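>> Question from a student workshop board

For tomorrow's exercise we were told to take the sequence and the ligand below, predict the bound structure, and bring the output to class. My setup keeps failing. Could a helper post the expected result so I can at least see what it should look like? The ligand is adenosine-5'-triphosphate.
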Amino acid sequence: MSSTLETRERRTGWLLLAPALILLALVYAYPIARSLWLSLFNQNLGTELQPVFTGLDNYVRMSGDGRFWQSILNTSVFTVASVLIELVIGMGIALVLNQSFPGRGAIRTIAILPWALPTALIGTTWAWIFNDQAGIVNDILLRLGLIETGINWLGNPLPALLSVIVADVWKTTPFISILLLAGLQSIPGDLYEAHAIDGASPWQSFRQITLPLLMPQILVATLFRFAQAFGIFDLIQVMTSGGPGGATETVSIYIYATVMRYLDFGYGAALVVVTFVVLVLVMAIAAFFLSKVRAATGDR
Amino acid sequence: MAKLELIHLNKTYTPKVIPVKDLTLSVEDHEFLTLLGPSGCGKSTTLRMIAGLEQPTRGEVRIGGQDVSRKSAGDRNIAMVFQSYALYPHMSVYDNMASGLKLRKMPSGEIRSRIEEVSRFLGLKDLLDRRPGKLSGGQRQRVALGRALVRQPDVFLLDEPLSNLDALLREQVRAELKQIFASQATPVVYVTHDQTEAMTLSSQVALLNDGYLQQLASPKQIYSQPANRFVAGFIGSPQMNLLELPCRENYALLGNSKIPLPTSFAPPPHVVLGIRPEHARIARPEEAITVTGTIILVEHLGMSNLVSLRVAGSESITVRALLSAEQSWQGNQITLAFPPEHTHWFHVETGDRLPDAE
Ligand SMILES: Nc1ncnc2c1ncn2[C@@H]1O[C@H](COP(=O)(O)OP(=O)(O)OP(=O)(O)O)[C@@H](O)[C@H]1O
Ligand SMILES: [Mg+2]
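>> Workshop helper replied:
Here is what the output should look like for this input. Compare the format with yours to find the bug.
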């Protein structure tokens, strides 16, 4: 009896999953498979855009492609820096918004605004903010006497990378703080009261109660933001287009240039495949690592 | 070890919300004080002020003669059991109990021995590695209790610790609590709105209403000599009969009956007569002072019957009597006697108890 019930339940489960699985297959599996296939061909202006089977040539070419490795490095620096900063600031904002004070509702709404704005708009705005002639950042620094002459923010490698990180942090911190705020609100207040009676300082309560109980939300926010930041395209395209001299060129921007500007479809497909594999690997490692962290803090 | 004193304690949230208006009382070592009262009367607020989770608007909390009103909760060396238990969900039972000791930098060897002792005592030995989420309600309650006991605090505070247990378990844990705290030389303040808990556990009961202390006395006294009409009506189940009656000479008129007033106070124009249902009994034929009434409702409670009567010669006065099963009657009329030693008299306006006869 129970086994038939179980099989029936399992069948219902698969039935319910089917639409999502089909959708995933169409949206994810097919493009990936197609890219994999395409990456085995040479299809560019040199072949007059006709596919010529070349096996793994594209991958061999990639291993010696300095621009590719530079873009991987840029992407990694951008991802790690922006996600870390966003987590720290997002946590701070979430902690503040979790307190009760007059006008909290209005401030919560305002805080989410940057997340709701179109990225292209944000990119343009920040490009102006960091503009070397008319930008407000230089203006403020000059007035404060911190610099003698305006910095060409978007025209120098390191400042350019810094600028896009700042813009990305500004845009996506609200997302993290809202996610963390939801988590904070699910922690019962009497745990903090019990902990205070146990003799804990606010900082100890943060470490021993808030952080471990917030770990699921931190985990989700990190993984989600990691995937997003690793594929960053629009913000950087608008602000620097990957410049100067490829200093802010991320993998997505390089792929875009390869396919859309150089019309090198075969090589572009190979880049997509490798990026995909890197992303999946890093995500898997991060997920594993973070769940270990969670278990460790949880067991304490 | 440390006497607990509350001195003119007041908590004002807003001018309209003043759950504790002026509360003065003290709890000695070995004493088990219960704060009892209807919902919203300020019991939890009082407890939270003792704990340091709430700052009193006026007044002082003293522990061992020291004013701790300005001290943080962690510096007061009190332990509290929450109604929700407030167990740390991500920590094992052991770590839940160890938390307060670790934070106070106690050597881990001593922590271990204390937890072992308490967990043996509470039957938690096999649960030490589990998380609270994998425990039953009764086990969680015990862990919360254990977390307080290992602390060996100056004062124990418990806020309705049994209210989340089912009736059977509550009775069992109630008995255990009595044993546990009898062995502690520390003042205990226990909040409940369950009068059975208050009566069975406490050495002293503080009955609160409307932010004021109504009576502070032993359970026995609070039952036999309620200080006012509110206390009389609140304590005891079924509720005491409280009858507002006119007086003639030195009698109170209850329907056709004349109940003699005690000589200890001058007869007022009106008076409130109180008699507990369990103290009213069927009158013997030779008795002179009796009350007759028509039965309007009989509730069978097993060992006894709760009988509601409409008093003869009155329009609306009903009296309830709890008659043991042996006391039987015929027809739908009953004549009751109110033993004078169990009769209470209260002032009509102030509700205060009028002096007892010697
Ligand atoms: N933080 C607060 N702000 C404003 N009013 C409050 C606050 N906490 C409690 N009150 C009010 O104070 C009054 C007393 O509350 P308290 O929790 O002490 O009642 P209680 O006697 O414990 O009741 P119960 O038996 O229902 O637990 C209530 O009217 C409540 O609404
Ligand atoms: Mg309460």
